[in-house]
Specification:
The protein is an alpha/beta fold. It is 33% helix and 20% strand.
Length: 283
């Protein structure tokens, strides 16, 4: 079991308080403005989401916009969460093979998906996940919007594009024709004036909306955009490049909307959707 590393820091460490905090994200005017409806559509179109991972009081409402779309559809069989290696703790692409606990309970490892992902250069490395928050902060949302979610954590260290493309090739093969929701966890510009964040983040978001992982990687490099999750987002885009998905921006915002501050962190919520219903899991 992977125990919480940032409970009480990025989100509440009490189960009732955390449930209330997640619901406040959905009710926020910066987010959906209401809790998800209890009834789901029988079809699923959302193949992937891009969501932020700061403290829930800051980025949670924007993340909730994407999770509200997930909550409105048939649940996927499993979820792959692609996270950041903020601490350079892993050698490249670190999988976790255990269940993860949050104050809301345990989120189970999706072992069939894990087995498909255990190919070089991906490897199981539990130590690499010990301090990292970018995947952990997604779990209260997954626990809230999905019944009994099963997931795999994949932490990706920034590196050369060719190295990320090799990771994407394994992910592509593992999720092809499978009922998997992919989640890329990333914040955008860090600690810059609002107008700088707005301008720079727009460049990165344009690349995502073009479904172009190479363009995203090159844009972030060329403009020195402090987007911490460029690696997982690049991998997601490259892995899904052949699926004909339509990206959609739900909202861009920043930390100064939650608490006034001279320099802000940028956040965005995006969907990658299929025009046709995604196939249900094989029985």
């Amino acid at each position: 079991m992977r125990e919480p590393a940032v409970a009480g820091q990025f989100y509440a460490d009490d189960p009732a308080a955390l449930a209330h905090q997640v619901e406040a994200c959905f009710r926020s005017t910066r987010g959906p403005g209401a809790l998800p409806e209890p009834h789901r559509r029988p079809e699923r179109h959302v193949r992937a989401i891009v969501v932020p991972h700061a403290g829930l009081d800051y980025s949670g409402p924007i993340a909730a916009l994407a999770y509200a779309a997930v909550a409105a559809e048939r649940p996927p069989a499993s979820v792959l969460v692609l996270g950041v290696d903020h601490y350079a703790a892993g050698r490249g692409a670190a999988l976790s093979a255990v269940d993860w606990r949050t104050p809301l309970g345990a989120v189970a490892c999706a072992h069939p998906l894990l087995d498909r992902l255990r190919r070089p250069p991906l490897e199981v490395d539990e130590a690499a996940h010990a301090r990292e928050h970018s995947i952990e902060v997604q779990l209260p949302f997954l626990d809230y919007v999905l019944p009994r979610p099963r997931f795999v954590a994949l932490q990706i260290r920034f590196g050369p594009f060719a190295a990320l493309d090799r990771v994407a090739a394994v992910v592509r093969a593992a999720v092809a024709d499978e009922d998997v929701l992919l989640v890329a966890s990333t914040d955008f510009s860090h600690y810059v004036p609002v107008e700088v964040a707005r301008r720079q983040d727009a460049l990165a978001i344009e690349a995502i909306l073009a479904s172009d992982g190479r363009r995203l990687y090159d844009t972030v490099e060329a403009h020195a955009i402090s987007m911490c999750g460029v690696a997982p987002t690049t991998v997601l885009l490259r892995a899904l490049a052949g699926e004909g998905l339509t990206p959609r921006l739900l909202r861009w915002g920043h930390s100064g909307e939650a608490t006034p501050m001279p320099d802000v962190v940028g956040y965005a919520a995006l969907l990658l959707e299929s025009s046709a219903p995604l196939p249900p899991p094989v029985k």
